[in-house]
Amino acid sequence: MDAVFKALADPTRRGLLDELFRHDGQTLSSLEARFEITRFAVMKHLKLLEAAGLIVTRRRGREKLHFLNPVPIRLVHDRWVSKYAEPWAAGLSELKSRLEVPMEKVFEIYIRTTPERLWEAITDPDIRSKYNFGARVTSDWTQGSSFEMGAPGAPGSLGEGRNLEVDPPRKLVQSMVALWSDEARQEGPTRVTWEIEPIGDSCRLTVTHDELREGASEELYGGWPMILSGLKTWLETGELLTTPGSLLYGDQ
Question: Per-residue confidence at 129, pLDDT binned at 50, 70, 90?
Answer without folding.
Answer: very high
